[in-house]
Amino acid sequence: MGGSTVLHTVDAVPLARVPPTSFRAVPTGISELDRALGGGLVPGSVTLVGGEPGIGKSTLTLQLAAEQVRCGRSVLMVCAEESTTQVRGRAERLGGLHDDLLVTSVSSIDGVVDLVDRHRPDLLVVDSIQTVHLASATGGAPGSAGQVRACAQRLVVEAKARGLATVLVGHLTKDGSLAGPKVLEHVVDTVTELAGDRHHALRLLRVSKHRFGPTDELGLFEMASAGLVPVDDPSGLFLADRSVGTSGSVVLPAMEGHRTLLVELQALVARSTTPHPRRSSQGVDQRRLALLLAVLERRVGLDLSGVDVYATAVGGVQVTEPGSDLPLALAVVSAATNRCLVAQVVACGEVGLGGEVRQVAGLERRLHEAHRLGFNRAILPASAPEPPAGMTAVRVDTLADAVVAAGLSPGPAGSGVVVSADPVVSTEPPPMG
Ligand SMILES: Nc1ncnc2c1ncn2[C@@H]1O[C@H](COP(=O)(O)OP(=O)(O)OP(=O)(O)O)[C@@H](O)[C@H]1O
Ligand SMILES: [Mg+2]
What we know:
Layout: H1 31-37, E1 46-51, H2 57-70, E2 75-78, H3 84-94, E3 101-104, H4 109-119, E4 123-127, H5 145-162, E5 165-171, H6 181-184, E6 190-195, E7 202-210, E8 218-224, E9 227-230, H7 234-239, E10 249-256, E11 259-271, E12 279-282, H8 286-300, E13 307-313, H9 325-337, E14 345-347, E15 350-351, E16 357-358, H10 363-372, E17 377-381, E18 392-396, H11 399-405
Parallel strand pairs: 1-5, 1-6, 2-3, 2-4, 4-5, 12-13, 14-17, 17-18
Antiparallel strand pairs: 6-7, 7-8, 8-9, 10-11, 11-13, 15-16
Helix pairs in contact: 2-3, 8-9
The chain binds adenosine-5'-triphosphate and magnesium ion (MG).
């Protein structure tokens, strides 16, 4: 034992002596995709694009591929899910038919790797990871959890070894549980999800994991016949068809990641014909609505028994943040009393069970965006920051104060609020215009 030398087969190095990384995102040429990804795709990285069936994953990845080819990079698209003829049809429709865009419907990963060896693309797109298979992997048919994981792992190894930017499309069911993106999230570098309401044109690309940048950016697109069109000014999009002068409408400066979207929240209150009045919501959380109705009943004195309440976020957007409490509650009061808020007002704040109005994140940014779009008054929690010059902050401690401040109280301002539900079925003629 004594004097023999020990051979070190493995070693550790000081971190500072590891060569610095020089990863650089390559712009995709699609502005909203670049924004979501923090600049573009990093060579050697693997990005997952998840989403429900028919939401536009193949459209987005084909547009990405076409744009890369236009910029002089080579792309291999594996369209195991569709025939190459179908992909050609889509490319024609999207104006993305290029001689240099390579497409294959091969579904074995060994075949894909062989094609990568031969063509040495700068970008590999696999649509979808559920339809490819790896012969050496046990675990059943394509799409099974074992196959999906094995295929993705193999593609990650190839991507790293070659510095090949890789995009995988993954199906996501409503509950997000199938052998889909959930299995893959640990394996890939970046996880994105294309989401939206299929009946509306708006599509949001959210990033939930990103090894090369922040995850709070968001890409916004509109689905058109020519494909996904980047939306630079989303607030305009949501408010375009707003009917000013109708009761039950309040605008929320909402935050999605780093972006502010001005979203109109609407409520409708109608006399119920059933013993169990309806509480129906679209784009806003049903349980949150029920909670706000209880707070309105107990803390503001709004009697909502015997009426149906409907609430929506306009434009197919999902509003789940706490800041929507105050505008949603005001929309319900407005609908119930048949009184309108002034058109140039926004409201934002969380409402507690005691009827207190609480601070929410990002108010400064929200107010700037609201002001930019012509809003000059904001109903806000008492501790809210100063609004931009030209905008008035109406600070409220409680929801009851907010109802008075919004001019929805039947009594003179400041008289304390007890609103009767009667005007629901009412009394005042609907405002004109
Ligand atoms: N001819 C067309 N004109 C306009 N829009 C179209 C047309 N064909 C398809 N679309 C739009 O594209 C959507 C389908 O997009 P795409 O095939 O990219 O979705 P996907 O997420 O890849 O779906 P899948 O899960 O089936 O693969 C349709 O829901 C529709 O909105
Ligand atoms: Mg598809």
